[in-house]
Amino acid sequence: MRIEKVEFGIHTIELYAKDLKYQEVQKVIDRLTDNGSIRKMRSDPYNIDRHLTSTFLVDDGIRLRIHQSHNKSNGIALIVNPSTLLSRKYQPTKLYHPKKKSCEELLERVGAALIKIGIGTFDSDDVVFIVPPDELSLSQMDLTVNLWFDDETDLEEIIRLFWKGKVPKNFSRQGCLSDEEHQHYFGISNHTVTFKAYDKIYELEKNGRCPKELTGHKLLRLEVSLKREAFLKKLGVQRKDCLYKMLKAGFQFVQEIISHYLEKLFPCSGAHVRYKTAKKKILDCVEKPVLQDQMLFLLKKTSDGAGMDTAAQKLKDCYKYVKTEQVLDEFEHLGISPITLTNNSSATQLSSLRNLLE
């Protein structure tokens, strides 16, 4: 496994037009329906409170999420790929590096998109917006790293290690629709943060959007999606700050924030070796019988179960006075991780994934 290139940036952002009137949203829905590009995700039995999506602007790099309700606030979210929107052509892997001038241009093109869906209208020579582009709320940003590996790398094996990782407290593993997807995607989330590791080329091929020149490449994408509450807290920005200041802060923190979650998922810096190799090393090198049993227990439960977090809990349940930190310290001393490769893995060992960005 060899990383050939690392790219940092922002994948997508979400801009939200909030506090719209029911009829204002209805006009947008009618326009999108006329273009045959709207899909209902869910609604109440009377179809009054409903959530919809649209790909009407997808070629511009924008997807739409619409919420319409008589009893709650109405709003439209624009999920924007800045690289695609600014270049006026599909950019499947390029990440955005915010600059003041490009942010100004970005808002201009978002304004053009608002006109297309009816949030902006022409009045003589002026454009009148229900919500001007610079008053849209930045509700989410996706901090992203592209890791381009050599052709020999088995990304499925790497993603399997993520599934076996130690999920942080208050996070839950995301479900996958199929076993195949499970091999190419890993995700954990709470109500404000989502961490993802996935095979980007597989995703593009699955959706029929992979350029020929990318076929066969090995691209692991790591992505932390921060909702507004999270990035205001983590990035040190204020609610009144402009789009450029917020995105600039996000870009500056990409490596630090993604590294933080890698360290949570992989608490040991030792190598990922095959299961049988780790077991043998514990048997050969750990002299204290109780500690040896605890290490073998954690090793097996991590390998057989959902992941290291559930294995650590089972360890506490089984050994009343165990200190998990002491067990992990011994793994650290041996230079191996309790998160192991399969016995038939094509690799004999991999450096700890906690150090991917170092």
Helix-strand layout with pairing:
Layout: E1 3-20, H1 22-34, E2 38-43, E3 50-54, E4 62-68, E5 74-80, H2 82-87, H3 100-117, E6 120-123, E7 126-129, E8 137-149, H4 155-163, E9 172-173, H5 179-184, E10 185-189, E11 193-199, H6 200-206, E12 218-227, H7 228-235, H8 243-252, H9 254-265, E13 272-273, H10 275-285, H11 289-304, H12 308-318, H13 324-334, E14 349-350
Antiparallel strand pairs: 1-5, 1-8, 2-3, 3-4, 4-5, 6-7, 8-12, 9-10, 10-11, 11-12, 13-14
Radius of gyration: 24 Å
Q: What share of the residues does DSSP label as strand, in percent?
A: 25-35%
What profile does the largest beta sheet have? 10 strands, antiparallel
Q: What oligomeric state is this? A: single chain
Question: What's the number of domains?
Answer: 3
List how many beta strands DSSP finds: 14
Give the distance, in angstroms, between the N- and C-terminal Cα atoms: 15 Å
Residues in helix, %:
25-40%
Q: Please state how the strands of the largest beta sheet are arranged side by side.
A: 2-3-4-5-1-8-12-11-10-9
Contiguous runs where pLDDT drops below 50 for at least 5 residues = none
Could you say which overall geometry the principal axes of the C-alpha atoms support?
Answer: elongated
Order of helices and strands: EHEEEEHHEEEHEHEEHEHHHEHHHHE
